[in-house]
Every structure is written in structure tokens, then in C-alpha cells.
Amino acid sequence: MASTFHLEIATPERLLLREQVTEAQVPAKNGYLGILPDHAPLLAELGIGELTYTVAGRKQSLCIEGGWVEVLPDHVRVLATTAERADEIDTHRAHTALERAEQRLASTEADLDVGRALNALKRAQERLNVASHK
Prior knowledge:
Blueprint (H helix, E strand, L loop, with lengths): L4 E6 L4 E7 L1 E6 L2 E5 L6 E4 L2 E8 L2 E15 L2 E11 L5 H16 L7 H18 L3
Parallel strand pairs: 1-8
Antiparallel strand pairs: 1-2, 3-4, 3-6, 5-7, 6-7, 7-8
């Protein structure tokens, strides 16, 4: 049984990670996936959240949103719509987005797109959560 697997994380703009890791937690659309070496193959849609992985005993994290994850026994490929490392997140901008989403949800607008406002709120919360790990 292998003790590591190859993890690749990419967006349409760039490759963020290509590393041998011992484990990963990936935010899928309907909940988190825990991935260890020799995991059963699967394909899942990504949600909004914190992707964590462990390299040489050290936990690392990124904030991702949307896309797909392909899991094979020795290789995991994450193709995210957006992904940011903790040190790349502009916390001021994330706080502003959080406040704006909270205000939108508290409003009584008849044409409010609640789903979009909730996604904006979750995205801002997750960005702030990941940024707190730097």
C-alpha cells in the first residue's frame, strides 16, 4: 500500500500545486471528501470551501470554488474554477464582500437572488477562514 499520492491543483489560469501528499480534504458540492492513498476512483463536482492537504507532516490549505476533482488510487487532479493560497487572499476585500453579502441577505428586495447572495457570503467566509491560516 502506498503512503502518498500525487496531488495536482489547477485553475484555467495557472497550476497551483503538483506535490506528493499523504492526505487531502476536498470541498465537493455536497460535502467534504477525505482522500488517502489508494482511494477508490471517483469524479465529483467541487463546491466552495477550504481544500487542505498534508505534505511531510505539515498541513497546507487553499480556498477553492467550483470545478471538478478526479480521484484515482495514486493521483488526484483538482480542476477548480478559482483557487487561492492563504497568502494571496486580500482580507480587506474579503471583509468588504462579507459585509455586502450580509447586507443583501438582510434586505427586503423583492428581486433578491438569495442563492447568489448565499454563495457570495460562503465564498467570503471561506476566504477569510483560509487567510487566517497564513
